[in-house]
Structures are given as structure tokens and as C-alpha cells.
From TrEMBL, chain A:
Residues 20-137 form the Aldehyde oxidase/xanthine dehydrogenase a/b hammerhead domain. InterPro entries: Ald_Oxase/Xan_DH_a/b, Ald_Oxase/Xan_DH_a/b_sf, Ald_Oxase/xanthine_DH-like, AldOxase/xan_DH_MoCoBD1, AldOxase/xan_DH_MoCoBD2, AldOxase/xan_DH_Mopterin-bd_sf. It comes from the Bacteria. Keywords: Molybdenum, Oxidoreductase. This is Xanthine dehydrogenase family protein molybdopterin-binding subunit. PANTHER family: ALDEHYDE OXIDASE 1-RELATED, XANTHINE DEHYDROGENASE. The lineage of its organism: Bacteria, Pseudomonadati, Pseudomonadota, Alphaproteobacteria, Rhodospirillales.
TrEMBL record, chain B:
This is (2Fe-2S)-binding protein. Keywords: 2Fe-2S, Iron, Iron-sulfur, Metal-binding, Oxidoreductase. Gene3D superfamilies: 3.10.20.30, [2Fe-2S]-binding domain. One of its GO terms (molecular function) is oxidoreductase activity. Pfam families: Fer2, Fer2_2.
Amino acid sequence: MSETGIGASVKRLEDYRFLTGRGTYTDDINQPGQTHAYILRSPHAHATINSIDTSAAAAAPGVVAIFTGADMEVGSLPCGWQIHNKDGSPMAEPGHPPLAQGKVRHVGDQVAVVIAETLAQARSAAELIEVDYSELPAVVDMNKALAGGTLVHDDVADNLCYDWELGDEGEVDKAIAGAHHVTEIDIVNNRLIPNAMEPRAAIGSFDRATGEYTLYTTSQNPHVIRLLMGAFVLQIPEHKLRIVAPDVGGGFGSKIYHYAEEAIVTWAAPKVGRPIKWTADRSESFITDAHGRDHITNVKLALDESGKFLALKVNTKANMGAYLSTFATCVPTYLYATLLAGVYTTPVIYAGVKAIFTNTTPVDAYRGAGRPEASYLIERVVDRAAREMGIPQDEIRRKNFIPRDAFPYQTPVALEYDSGDYEATLNSAMKNADVDGFAARKAASEAKGKLRGLGYSTYVEACGIAPSAVVGSLGARAGLFESANVRVNPTGSVTIFTGSHSHGQGHETTFAQLVSETLGLPLDQVEISHGDTNKVAFGMGTYGSRSLAVGGEAMMKAMNKIIDKSKKIAAHVLEAAEADIEFKDGKFTVAGTDKEMTFGEVALTAYVPHNFPHDTLEPGLEEQAFYDPMNFTYPGGCHIVEVEVDPDTGVVKVDRVTASDDVGRVINPMIVAGQTHGGLAQGIGQALLEGCIYDDNGQLLTGSYMDYTMPRADDLPNFSTSNEVTLCAHNSLGVKGVGETGAIGSPPAVINAIVDALSGLGVTDISMPATPQKVWQAIQGAKAAAE
Amino acid sequence: MPTVSMTVNGKSVSGEVEARTLLVQFIRENLGLTGTHVGCDTSQCGACVVHVDGKSMKSCSLLAVQADGAEVTTIEGLANGEELHPMQEAFRNNHGLQCGFCTPGMVMSAVDLANNNKNPSEEEIREWLEGNICRCTGYHNIVKSIKEGAANM
Ligand code: FES
Ligand code: FES
């Protein structure tokens, strides 16, 4: 293994700029003549707008322009995935105007934009805008929404976006009816607010000389924004629209989507003739960044007398919020129900999913997106079934695992897993968690008056999103390939243009390692360029743990083309047959001779082609490739969490977190561990701390860091992480993806551990987030019931 | 408009500000030192931490005029030329950052801790970081970084 190639924990190349304050995030950018935008937002969850009087505000100091929905009649913010109802009809797809058209549907909905010389002036002027609202009753609860009455969109009956299903309900019901044992639970997957630390920001400008629009934005996928905003919202042709996503301070899904503010500043820029900058403050982030999760589910698991799973039936209600965010509709369907086999051989599975509109912020993919919801319910119901049937937690899992030699494995819910070894990750997690020593630790806790519990979660996810043909047949309005361009410069250094986008993942390092390994170059000869649609030809961006498995493969493909062309050049110069040229360690050699050319010499020759046979050899050395994956990739693993509960206060201390994950081949172990840590923190945050709460009027009660509990350093322990490797069978690198595993695997392990700790008292369930209050109440309830 | 003068990263600076201008705005907008970040509006996240007269402070919780005459160090002033400060080096060495947004505040906060405690325990570090939120790293590697950075300072 080379020190800079695959498998090396190379220190990150991007760190110097971040550590010295030289990162360039969107809000760090200022443009000559720039104005500032402040968005006036609805204070009501549901209201009609009778009138908007902007006259006083327009006369306020520094105000350049004010626009409302009446001025901005443009296309709707689009939804990228069409789901069909059980009866084959398409989902309800109400419009989503960037500025409200006569009605507001959630607190924070955009009502007007004030553009002024300074942000303070824009903000002060916005206070002078008089909006006459007629408040309407708000609908927040999904069950109430389904009952009709109050409609978020007048033309969407019962607030039902779609009623979708997967699997044969009759067959599953039959298996359940005849089963030896059925375990049933009602599960809530709590709503979360993503909270990337960098608030969203956007700067729009227009160059009258060239007719080109430029948008700087906090995006995980600038080309997707160009396509959605250009083609659907503002009708700006793509060659006149440049999107730049510079350094981005975390995304976790929330920066995938095309947001209203991007369209507003771009649309208004030519109207005011100056650049316009908008930056969210954190309070705005809370009410306008797409939220995550928010499912209510009933699940039934049928088992035979030995504990073998016979059938799984799931009915889920999924909150869409007030409007359809870009990928909202695929999360509770194709990223969720297709994962319900988990790591098990359950032969028949049925999922029914209702997606519902409410007067809340739109909900969309958040780290894991659908897969955490699936793994949570599976691992909760398996845990409960094991308890009910008296089977040890590891045993019930082993009994039902898809065996290592059964791959490729076709699940009953559409996916074909290509590789995995669930026994291996369970075994290594049990060893690293010192499960054998648990009894002694439990006794020690009990001696102190504390309760100790151990929780398991064995999971699989689908990422490397995604084969275009498959997702296209399921309603995706996009292909999910990736592009890469490899430019070899005349002196032999290499610039890679990738459609993937790094916002914390360390692509500038991991991708450079691929280049170093493949082309034999030192890292300082490699530049990774991303995030600018005027530099990168095309890209679908970064989400769903796809950057290495899809973007990395595109890069490999393009580099192989470079090697092929370089061999032609070397063959010509060395006067040998192309087939005799070998490439190794950065050198092209004529097989069996000492005639060789370095990579740098080939590069220079390519750009100084003095005697090239121009009919057969083009000058230059630059190649483009697009890669469309054959299948999803399937990372999986086992997370074991150990908690200590104080029965007097209900406080849960997470004592040990052990993750053994199979993410395929590991390019940079240091970065992979870091990704796992971050995911674990978010998963533990969901399980113990985080929860988005609205009151019945649709007011967000958890709208700041004083009310929404972010995991802090003293809420978490150190993590034990390790990797078992089975290679992805359908990409050349054998990589699967690591961005989401931590957030997918850990929440059920935490809750199962708490239930384990409290099981002696008769507690069988606790919902997320398991706050001290909830845990204490569960303990009191169980005690009262026992009396 | 009031004029404020202070020393920032060893250079004396002054500027006209509105009375309501926060120190972080003065640093970012007037001085163009954008390494100091704004992550919240309730003084909870710590992305904006700088040193004021040698102590770590949330620069969003201070008016620029309150820092009049003070000695301010921002993340841009920590390294010795091209050579990273031991705390910066430790963050790099231990993968203590991912997206980098919380990083300047984390590092400035950590330096203050280490100035007063050369050998902080894991628990002391985690407690000290109460006022700094990171969404990316899960803190594991930040804690490791600070331990190493403090030892090397
Ligand atoms: S910006 Fe969040 S604490 Fe200062
Ligand atoms: S590194 Fe992204 S918030 Fe800390």
C-alpha cells in the first residue's frame, strides 16, 4: 500500500484552509455593488393574504426594491419524484410558489422580499410592511389531516399526497394469520431539524453584458439547482446560468433541495441591477430548511415457533409538510419500504404508505432518508419479538440473517443485495463491545442504584444512488449517474472535475488518493475541482452516500481513458505496438524492454505533438466519463449501545457505542471513521435529544438552540468503530458508502438498550427522543402498573 | 456613527459602526476577516469564538463598541505565518474537522482551555465545549485533537 493511495489515512488536504480561516463559504463572498435581501415570512401556519401594503417600507432608508408574490409570478419549485397511488393514479402535486400567492401554509412561508443597501435596513423596512391576513385553522397532526376538514391545499382532498403500497397484502395477512407468534408495535419516528452549522445563503447576480446569471448558493448539488431553477422556475437557459456552491458547511440532506430564496435572489438581480445577498439566520433555518423523518407506523412481525420471521407488515403515515420539497416523495417509499427486509430472510413483506400534507415546514431527506426509519422499526420489532419469545438478541438475528453465501440476494421488496456478511459485523461488534463483560458491568451499576442495558441493531441500507433505469421506472424525474473530467496538464499535474460536492466529506483528499493510486502521482500534483457549473461539465451532486460509489467510479472510468490514450502516445514515441505498452507506478514501459516514458513525459508530448500522426492521434490529454451504477450499494453492519439509566431522574448516560460496519473497500480509514462518528452522533441525537415540536396552531416550539437539543460534546461518549469488508460486487473500487451508516444503525440500538435497562421493571417501549422526563415517566408508569 | 478602534491580530484597526453592530459583524464585514463564523442568533453555537484580551468570547454576544480598545485575536491570527499553531496542527492530525464551519470557534475555544490547563482530561474538554456545537464530527476527534494540541502548546 502506498502512503498516498487506497487504504492510507492521508491527512486531509482541505484542512489547511479551514483551520486558518481561509475557507470560502457563501456568506464570506461579497460582490461589488451588492445589496442585501431580507425575507418577510409568515407568522401564521395557515392564512389567506388579503393585501400587502409595502408603501411605508419602500420609503424607508436604504430600500432598493420590494417584491411580493404579485410581482413574482414564476414557475413552481418542482418535486423531483412522482409517486403513484395504489390505483395507478399520480400523486397530488400542488404548486409551491417561491413567494406566497394569496395564501401562506406554514410558519416561515415567504411573503415578500425587501432588498436594501444593508441587511439592517432591509430588516427594519420589512417591519413596516403591512400584511392583512385572515387566519385559517391549521392542521398539524397527520391523523387529523387525513380526516379532512382543514385543507392545506384546497384541491388536495383529505390532505393526502399519495396512498402507495409495495407487496402483496393478502399474502402477508395470510402468513400473519397462520403464524405461531405475532409482535406488533406502534412506532413514531420523530421529526428532526437537520441543523448543518452553516446557515443557508444565496447571492444572485446578473451580467447585462453577457446575459449570464450567477448564483452562489449553499448547495450539495449545484447542477441540480441549475436544472431545477433554470428549467422549471425561472426559465433561464442553462448556458446562461452559472451556479457556484463554494465551501459548504455541512448539509446532511438539507442542502440538496432547491429553495425559494435561491430563485428569489436570482430572479430579482436583473430587476435591481445589482447583486443580491441573502443569508439565513438560525431562526430562519429552523423554519425553512427541510425537516427530516416524521413517520407514524404500525408494524407487525410474524414468527414461527423457532423464531424464524415469516412476514412483516407495515403501515406508515409520512408527513410531507406544507409543500413537496425536491425529493420528499421518494423518501417514505423507495428509500424506505424497499429496505424493509433489512438483513433478514423475511419471505413476504407488505408496506402501505400514506403521505400527508400539514401546515408545517416541508419534510425531505435527512441523513439516511427513509433507511433510518426502516431500520428503526425493524430493529425495534425484532428486539421486542425476541423479548416476547425469550430468544437472546444475537440469536434471533443470526437465525434470520441472509447468509453470507446467499448473495446476490433478491429481497421480497424489489432490491437485490449484491454482497454482505452480517454475521461478521455482529461478531466483531459483540467482541469490541465486550458483551461478555456486560453482566459484570450491569451488576456494578446495580450496586450504585443504576440500571444498565445493552441494545443491538443489525442493519443494511441502500446507497450509491442510483441506477438511472431503475429509479426512472419508479418515477424519478432525473437520472442519477455522475460525471468526471480528468484534465492532465502539460507538465503532468492533474485536475479532476467532479460532479460530486464535498461539504465535509473530505473528497479533496479521498478522490486525490484514487488519482494517486491509479496514475501514480504524488498528491500535490492533483487538484480536485467541484461545485461550479462553469467548471464541471455536469453532476448530480452529493447525497445518499453516493460520491465515491458513483462519482469515484466516474473518475476511475475517466482515468482509464487517460491511461488508454497515454499508451497510444507512448507507443508512438517509443515506436512500439500499443498492446506492448504497460503502465505501472506512473511509467509507461514497452513490455520486456527498458524503454519507458514517465507520465509527465507523456503529458508534455500530448501538448507538444510535434510529430503526431494526426489522423490517428489527437493532441491533448483530457477525458470525460459518465458512470451510471448497475445497482444500489448495500453497506450494513451492527451497532451495539450500552446505556446506564438513573431511575431517580430518568437520565440516560450513553456509556459505550460500538459500530462495526461493512462499507466495502475503505479508501481513507481516518475519514471513514470520522463519517461514522458524525452519523452516530446524529443517530444518538435523534434517539435521546432531538425532536421537533409544533403546537396545535402550527407554531414551531423548538425553533432555536435553546429549545431544540443539539448533541453537545458532553452528551456523547467516545465511539468504537471498525470495519469488516465485503466488496461491492458491481463497481470497480468495491466501495459502498459510509455517509449515512451511523445515523441509520444507531437509533434502534440506543432505544433497545434503554428498553433492556428498564425491562426488569416491565417497560417494553420508549419513544424517541428518550428524554429524562419520558424515561422517568415510563419507570413510574411501570412501577404503578406492577403495584 | 461611533468609531471603534482595537488591535486585531496584532494590527491596529478602526472603523465607523452603528451602535448595534456586533463584534462579529465588525470582524467579518468591516475587516473582511471571514474566518470567524456565525452559526446562530442565540449565542449558543460558538462558531464565532475569538479571543478578546486573551480570553475566548462569543463575538456575536458583544457589541463592537464594547471591544473598543481591546486586543482581539481571530482564527486568522493564530498561525505563525505559514506554520500552524499547535492546536490547529492537532485538529489536522486527528481529523478534528469535517465541513470546517464550527472549526475556527472550536480551535479558538480550545486554545483558551489549553492556556489555562495544559493537560485537560476528556471530561474537562467535553465540559468546556458546552458552548460549541459541531454537527459533523460527533466530537470524538475534536476531543482527541484538543488533548494533543494542549499537550503541544
Ligand atoms: S454565532 Fe452562534 S454563538 Fe455566536
Ligand atoms: S466540522 Fe462541520 S460543524 Fe463541525
